[in-house]
Amino acid sequence: MIKELQNKLYNDIPLTKIMEIKIQNYTNQELITTASLGININDKGTAFGGSLSTITIISGWSLSWLISKELGFDSNNIVIIKNETSFRRPVTKDIVCHTKKPSLEEIQILKEKLLTKKSASLKIKSKIIEDNETCVDFVGFYVIKL
User: Fold this and answer.
1) How far apart (Å, rounded) are the C-alpha atoms in residues 92 and 88?
2) Alpha carbons 52 and 40: distance in angstroms, whole number
3) pLDDT of 36 strictly over 80
4) Fewer C-beta within 10 Å: the chain N or C terminus?
């Protein structure tokens, strides 16, 4: 499923290929995505804020897509409706984004709403971490429609 997601990102969202966003790992706890600093660098030699924001948004979208697939839904209609990003410190190395999987309870509520209303929202949290320090905190709200 990770390979399918990577292909989907590069084919359907061309910016992800330009930014070199890669799906590194997916577990029951989190999705890890990365992007090279070199292509996402700013004039200060650190990661560009727009790139940091984009990778967190894409990572949340990707996790929403993976969860909908795991639940047996094939939704091509997943959108972010609201987000908040806090930039805590500069990113000076390749970007590593950790996107936390919602609780089983939250996923069950999502499933029930998708079955009954054909639409549901999901709160997704991500952190960009460098040297065990949080550089970026992100919270996004995504809507999945069938």
Assistant:
1) 13
2) 8
3) yes
4) N
**Strand 95-100, strand 133-145: pairing:** unpaired
Which has the closest alpha carbon to 94: 62, 61, 125, 129? 129
Question: pLDDT tens digit string along 132-146?
Answer: 999 999 999 999 999
CA angle centred on 134, ends 140 and 67, rounded to 5°: 35
In one-letter notation, the amino acid at residue 43 is D
Integer distance in angstroms from the first to the last C-alpha of the chain? Answer: 19
Summarised one tens digit per residue, pLDDT across range 94-131 is 999 999 999 999 999 999 999 999 999 999 999 999 99
Asked if 54 and 20 touch (Cβ cutoff 8 Å), the reply is no
Neighbours of 64 (CB within 10 A): 26
